[in-house]
Amino acid sequence: MVAATEIIDSSEQLATELVSIVGADAVLTETETLRPFECDGLTAYRELPLMVVLPSSISQVQDVMKACSNRKVPVVTRGAGTGLSGGALPLPNGVLLSLTRMNDILEVDVAARTARVQPGVTNLSISDAVRHLGFYYAPDPSSQIACSIGGNVAENSGGVHCLKYGLTVHNILQLKVVTVDGQLMTVGSEGLDSPGFDLLALMTGSEGMLGVVVEVLVKLLPIPPVAQVVMAAFDRVENAGDAVAAVIGAGILPAGLEMMDNYAISAVEDFVHAGYPVDAAAILLCELDGTAEEVADQIGEVEEIFRTQGAMGTWVAEDAETRDRFWSGRKAAFPAVGRISPDYYCIDGTIPRRELGRVLVRTAELSKEFGLRVANVFHAGDGNLHPLILYDANNEGELEKTEELGNQILELCVEVGGTVTGEHGVGVEKLRPMCLQFEDAVLEQFHQVKAALDPDTLLNPGKAVPTLARCAEFGAMHVHKGNLPHSNLERF
Amino acid sequence: MFTRAIYRIVILRDFDVVGTDVSGELVKAVKAAYQNSEKLRIRGGGTKSFYGNPVIGTTLDVSEHTGITSYEPSELVITARAGTRLSEIEKVVAEERQILAFEPPWFGEDATLGGTIACGFSGPRRPFAGSARDFVLGINCINGKGEYLSFGGQVIKNVAGYDVSRLMVGALGALGVICEASLKVLPQPEVETTRVLELDKRAAHVEMVRLMGLPMPISGLSHCAGLLRIRFSGTENGVRAATSELGGETDRDGAEYWQQLKEHQLNFFNRNQSLWRVSVSATAPSLELGGECLLDWGGALRWIYNDSSPESMFDAARRVGGHATMFKPDSDWPTGRFAPIAEPAMGIHTRLKSAFDPKGILNPGILYGNC
Q: Which residue of B has its CA nearest to A447?
């Protein structure tokens, strides 16, 4: 056992070494300066890191990684800290590597339709920087005003437009990555593929477990000349679900297709007055984009489908102002719920769309059983469900109850053939449902993948993939379908 | 136009699986090979066996593992066993007016899903719709220890665990024997038409780069034998407006051109010479190594016949930010067919190979020396 004084000594030595790399103003060790880094967007989990280091160049990141690697000190990389799964939760014995100072757009190549950016650049600022050229960066997570592109790569972020335009993995070409021992590696290429294994795909969404992303080459798309939105109200959630399937079945690929349930509609309407019908059981927002002719061809068709599927009413946003108003409600859904409840907890399961009715009915039952309200917002086009559980952390035991409800909703998602996380990542939050989604051999294979890139488990250890022992502990609490999971592990 | 869709979507039938599940036998075979340290050469329909470095090993035939196991058009997802013929999959999705949007080349009637995903080839629609790996949602495979593993799933958005499904695409079986794959499908475009313009290569290249930057419903951009062809896909009025804006002649044999380009059946490919595949940025300059060159993917994919040395091709492509592959050698090829990978990425390749295939029994050496 290492004595406490030894840890303090070695952490002082590490701090001195890091100061020599990045300068005194870029190493934080005092409790009050560490405090802002104690959590990410998942505020229920907090921890102070040993220290925070803020490099401003690739070579500094390399030297920091070398120093930490030599001392076997774990490193948690953090972008803007907007993640919702605790992926950037610090470790008390680890360095928090914040990349916010690396926030330059290095190059925009209009002809090649690419931008080379540093990891701390915010998602929206890429689109802002190229808008006057007629381009944009497609993935648009709701936190896009604040979240960083490095974090987007780590989480493989999506957004409301990913049904048509894909996730982060579909919209990046190349990464520069610093390995755990400080080597610089380029994955992907300026072309559309690269030789060997697809390390670009492996790195994307790996939650900071395999390397540190220090530069990103993103694809830019031409801004569609026209985008139009149809809103439809339904008196039954099932009809709204069928309407979504009908739009897709008709061969239409909307840019965005969003659903909100009655509770979410009311919360939003009280907050931003988007003009939503508050008596509807569910509303759909369907955005179509493309050339004027393409959109004109499809918008009437979508409206007709919604009516055929039993919509109580449909509204086409005829101008940009109305379109923005329709979207303002959807985009304000989380803060609107935050307004009516002291705390809320966002779930991120994805389900096959056909299971929507069943999942919503069961969620409502669970909500009653637990005595916690649930508002549902849903990226309906791609099956990504965001139930928001309303709770009050000041009431004793309510957070635990909320997490238990969340777990049960995620178990339901797995049961119907979906996944425990569509876009927020596993982080620390979804380790338990991961045990249900994946078999031991698969989890073990994931650990071996990590070991191939991070043999000493220094990069964001303990996140994203649960250990089998951890799953066994969870399993002891929960018997799934009458089977004790991970039964091949010894119990203590 | 509108009524065609309505009744179809709500019918979610239980898919009658026509095919044979031999995954049990495949697992047994890989387990035995692992125990005996016996090298395996994985084979599907054999239509792409020209690709990759030669492998010496006992043949593991996946072509009997067949059948579409689920297909729900309104979910935009199809799942099939690896030996399922691509022809069958494309026929089934076409009946629902859907497509595999990465336009996979078959290179023969016997092409299978597994081989397609293992090679990771994509056709002319790739820069506009995405690649094979972009459409893979989940893969079940057998690793080198004989463990049957499921990665990803059947939903479009899924970030649980590392993206091993996409890592398998283009890995040529070196990380696992692909047994089943789920792919995202897309609606078939309502209308497709091709315009043709007479332009030399340089002028065509400039025009392609210009067109790629415009918000037009384009789905193919290729230059061959002095002709630039532009394919438009979309709604009727959308395509009409775009084509009239562009000018040029309608190519009545357009559909055939794209099909023959995808399958390498154009006259261009009819040569007794080794074929290089060069993947670069669409704006990259010509490699200036001589020979004949066909441009696809708006200039980002270049098929080249020349007699340059492998080193000079690899270097030239690398210098412009891309890579060259010896796609189809005319005769025995003396060296590696894929561009060398620098450290530390090469070391990671080796360690990833060991992570999935510790004894190195799956298609050993098909990509590089030890993987």
A: B355
Average pLDDT of the segment spanning A157-185: 96
Between chains, do A113 and B212 touch, taking CB under 8 Å as contact? yes
Q: Do A297 and B238 touch (CB under 8 A)?
A: yes
DSSP annotation string for A401-417: HHHHHHHHHHHHHHHTT
- Cβ within 8 Å of residue B298, ≥6 positions away: B127, B208, B209, B211, B212, B221, B282
DSSP string of B69-127?
Answer: EEEEGGGTEEEEETTSBHHHHHHHHHHTTEE-TT----SSTT-BHHHHHHHT---TTHH
Q: Is residue B214 within 8 angstroms of chain A, CB to CB?
A: yes
What count of Cα atoms within 13 Å lies in the side-chain half-sphere of residue A304?
13
Of A291, A417, A446, the CB nearest to B215: A291
Q: Is the peptide bond before A387 cis (omega within 30 degrees of 0)?
A: no
Q: CA A352, CA A436: separation in Å to the nearest integer?
A: 17
The C-alpha of A208 sits at a distance from chain B's nearest C-alpha, in angstroms, of: 11
Q: How far apart are CA B335 and CA B178, in angstroms?
A: 27
Q: Please tell me whether residues B145 and B283 are part of one structural domain.
A: no
The tokens describing A282, both together, are: 């569910």
User: What is the rounded CA–CA span in Å between residue A146 and residue A80?
Assistant: 7
CATH of the domain at B318: 3.30.70
Contact call for B279 and A191, based on CB within 8 A: yes
pTM of the model: 0.95
Q: pLDDT, tens digit, for every residue of A425-464?
A: 999 999 999 999 999 999 999 999 999 999 999 999 999 9
- CA distance to partner chain A, nearest, from residue B58 (Å): 23
CATH 3.40.50.300 fits A105-222, yes or no: no
Residues B222 and B102 in one domain: no
What is the pLDDT confidence band of residue B2, given thresholds at 50, 70 and 90?
very low
User: Cα distance from B225 to chain A (closest Cα, Å)?
Assistant: 23
Kindly list the residues from chain B whose CB atom is less than 8 angstroms away from the CB atom of residue A419. Answer: 153, 155, 157-160
Contact list in B for residue A199 (CB cut-off 8 A) is 167, 345, 348
ipTM reported for the complex, 2 dp: 0.95
List the Cα angle B58/B64/B67 in 5-degree steps.
145
CA distance linking residue A51 with residue A66, whole number of Å: 16
B206 contact A CB<8A: no
Q: Which domain holds residue B210?
A: 191-262
Backbone angles phi, psi at A176, to 5 degrees: -100, 130
Q: CB-CB: which of A204, A252, A418 is closest to B163? A: A204
CB contacts, 8 Å: A350 with chain B: 155-158
Gap between the Cα atoms of A360 and A441, Å rounded? 32
Helix (H, G, I), strand (E, B) or coil at A78: strand
User: Kind and range of the H or E element at A136?
Assistant: strand A135-136
